[in-house]
Recover the amino acids of this structure.
């Protein structure tokens, strides 16, 4: 399953703080969101929910029949980068687009535009603006996780 979440990019410190707020013992989504809000600068519940789902995509939290709980997955760049590429919608396609020469967010969006599901396009009249912002967020997380580098607004695959 690939998660369709792309919250604004934050730091590793934020990830660690927010993730630690989620208990090891399963708890409700509402309580986990409240815990994230209390531990970070996030003020609204919907934004906290987006990060909770993003953490789930990265394998940092999981949902059981009793609620969400923190996993014991390490918070290292390689683990996060792999989960990010494999479990977040559009990331693999964006990374391939950058490798193929689409170095700016605008060019990368154009390269993956047709991958945006039709129902997403019909869901809101400003779907392009919404998905352009998602692409920028996704590229930013790829930089944080060490998959891409960025210089003067141009993205490059990180050389191994």
């Amino acid at each position: 399953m690939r998660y369709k979440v792309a919250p604004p990019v934050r730091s590793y410190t934020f990830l660690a703080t927010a993730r630690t707020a989620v208990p090891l013992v399963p708890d409700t989504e509402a309580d986990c969101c409240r815990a994230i809000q209390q531990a970070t600068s996030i003020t609204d519940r919907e934004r906290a929910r987006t990060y909770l789902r993003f953490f789930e995509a990265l394998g940092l939290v999981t949902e059981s029949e009793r609620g969400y709980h923190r996993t014991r997955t390490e918070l290292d760049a390689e683990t996060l980068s792999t989960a990010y590429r494999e479990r977040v919608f559009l990331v693999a396609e964006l990374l391939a687009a950058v490798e193929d020469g689409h170095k700016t967010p605008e060019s990368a969006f154009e390269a993956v535009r047709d991958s945006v599901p039709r129902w997403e396009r019909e869901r809101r009249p400003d779907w392009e603006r919404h998905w352009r912002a998602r692409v920028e967020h996704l590229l930013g997380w790829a930089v944080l996780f060490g998959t891409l580098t960025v210089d003067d607004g141009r993205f490059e695959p990180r050389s191994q």
